[in-house]
Write a sequence for this structure.
């Protein structure tokens, strides 16, 4: 016998509800989480015979604290003291996770966008105390675009690097080294093979950073050991060290933007990959305005953080013209 169960959307209460359909041994759900992971809270609720009202949303939802770029004139050696610690900057999707009881949870990314975690990560939440955690959803050895690939879903891990609340207590005004102690205690019961893991923290060390870059890692975040957690702020208490690549591309044209008809430069590399970067400054925009045609075919040097698997440039920026 075919039966259906409906659940109102948590992100849009006035929108189309999610529908669980049971047709003999086949169980499906219309929500995005089920389509991505073949598993979701709605199906779990129906199969467990629980009431179909959704769990209350986390309150309040918080934006993550962000790291600042390295200030001009500073280097890693300037942070090599007992006042700072270093963590690898893993390349995935930033996720704040609220875990009230058991395996019930709410998760959201930047912009407070609700997220659904895969079932193997949800199962591991039983080892964590009730709390709010800040971390990164990653594919080990992969890059951020791998997180949404269906064929990598079973490999996903949640790497925790901060704790905002635990057992009903707000931790955000607690100094960073004390929050780390609370986080280590919260993660102490996680099995070694669990897909939820605590980020490794070390002293600030240029040799360790070089080793991360040598194996293709993105870089590190250096944190003041006593820093408080400020939701939504880009703080100089956290500083990111990333190695940018450089590429030579050929200018093919320009695009209009908020700053005028030559706000963006369009270019192509030797492999035919097209890239669009913002014009460097007002001087460049004025120069292109007067002599745009003379720059077609010129070589533009760009910096970028990484390349995607299909050769596109991540976070490209104009550097100079040859």
């Amino acid at each position: 016998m075919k039966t259906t169960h409906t659940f109102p959307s948590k992100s849009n209460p006035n929108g189309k509800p999610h529908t669980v359909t049971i047709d003999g041994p086949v169980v499906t759900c219309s929500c995005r989480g089920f389509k991505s992971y073949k598993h979701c809270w709605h199906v779990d609720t129906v199969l467990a015979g629980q009431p179909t009202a959704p769990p209350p949303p986390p309150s309040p939802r918080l934006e993550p604290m962000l790291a600042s770029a390295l200030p001009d004139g500073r280097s890693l050696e300037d942070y090599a003291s007992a006042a700072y610690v270093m963590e690898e900057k893993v390349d995935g999707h930033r996720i704040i996770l609220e875990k009230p009881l058991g395996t019930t949870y709410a998760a959201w990314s930047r912009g407070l966008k609700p997220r659904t975690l895969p079932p193997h990560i949800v199962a591991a939440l039983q080892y964590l105390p009730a709390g709010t955690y800040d971390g990164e959803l990653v594919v080990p050895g992969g890059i951020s675009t791998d997180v949404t690939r269906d064929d990598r879903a079973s490999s996903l891990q949640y790497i925790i690097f901060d704790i905002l609340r635990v057992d009903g207590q707000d931790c955000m005004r607690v100094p960073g080294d004390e929050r780390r102690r609370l986080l280590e205690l919260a993660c102490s019961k996680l099995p070694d093979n669990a897909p939820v893991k605590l980020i490794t923290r070390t002293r600030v060390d240029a040799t360790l950073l070089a080793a991360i870059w040598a194996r293709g890692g993105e870089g590190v975040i250096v944190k003041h050991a006593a820093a408080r957690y400020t939701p939504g702020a880009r703080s100089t208490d956290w500083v990111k060290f990333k190695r940018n690549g450089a590429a030579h591309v050929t200018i093919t044209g320009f695009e209009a933007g908020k700053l005028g008809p030559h706000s963006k430069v369009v270019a192509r590399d030797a492999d035919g990959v097209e890239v669009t970067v913002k014009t460097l400054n007002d001087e460049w925009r004025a120069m292109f305005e007067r002599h745009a045609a003379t720059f077609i075919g010129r070589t533009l040097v760009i910096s970028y953080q990484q390349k995607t698997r299909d050769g596109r440039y991540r976070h490209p920026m104009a550097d100079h013209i040859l």
About this structure: The CA atoms of residues 96 and 279 lie 34 Å apart. The helical segments are 32-37, 41-48, 119-124, 176-186, 206-214, 282-295. The domain at 245-321 is CATH 2.40.50.140 (OB fold (Dihydrolipoamide Acetyltransferase, E2P)).
